[in-house]
Amino acid sequence: MRPSKKANQLYEFIRRGIETGKFRINERIPTERELATQFGMSRPTASGAIQRLVKENIIRRNGKAGSIVIAAPPRPSLTFGAILIGLATQHREETVCDTIGKELSRRAALDKSFVLLQDPSWSEDPGESGVSSRYRAIADEFLNRRVSGVFLMPQEILADQFISPTASVVQDFQAAGIPVILIDRDIVRYPELSRIDLVGIDNFEAAFALTRHFIEMGCRRLIFLAHTSRVPTQESRIDGYLRALGAGGLRAEPGTVCRGNLFDREFVVETLRRRRPDAAVVVSDSRAASVMRFALDCGIDIPHELRLGSFDDLPMSSHLPVPLTTIRQPAAGVAAVAMRTMLQRIDEPQLPPVHAELHGELIIRESSGAAIAATNRLNIRQEPV
Are residues 32 and 156 in the same domain? Predict the structure, then answer.
């Protein structure tokens, strides 16, 4: 005889309660009488639902003391999709997205109930029309396969946009009941926040720490070199930079945030010669490498004349002509929190949106002139009174 609809509802209620931790291992579930009253069913019907869980070795009957949870139900196989396209990568060097993708894959391989589908597509121009088409093609594949969830790094928000082109893809996933975890950045322009789970670093705090480091090194003419898009991570970093200037007693002069193509030699050199900064906070390591190359080529000494710092700590950052001071993104940690957030979203879809910000680590290398500052302090202490 097939279980009744009410018995199935009670069975799923108890099973889901165990999966989500509402009913814990070695703890008692409500009695048959309590469950029958709660679900408006007879005690024999409630008993039948519990007996199914007993046969599955998930619950053990314990006489008048009630039924005890003895094991978690086996997790159903889950297939996830990941769209982590590395935008603006000059030489296909490893990016933060690469590391996040590898860590997600590693975790999927360790847990045999997970399958991760990825697409390693690349583009050097975030405004290129082909990028949007590629996002759409991958999204359609995931929709057709009915994946359990998608990890997604949105496209950049360009200067004339207020929402990422990827927003339409996210909406399609939501309409299909497929949860999305945004990686690194939001789909709406900063400081707005979408109602979609997001995992990244605290970009405001990271920029504040990096800018404060320059101020402590004695820098007083700082600029922020940004690209023209309005990607939320960059805008949050600019806010942190400006706040640190104020905290350090420095005034944010007009034009202190310089926006342009940081892969364009003419723009970079003209900006450095016009602004004559003693330090530049650059939006990312890949762009900082470009700025460094142009500065050195035109005779600007780093770090004696110009100090540089940026964000990400890509593998190449320590191997540049002048090793780069940068904020290290905990990419593996981002992947771990993203996976945990995804599983929580699947188990409890009604939870409020989660925006998780991890702490970035300041990695001090030669480009910020820490050794010069230390020598100057030593010389001051050694001067005769």
Answer: no
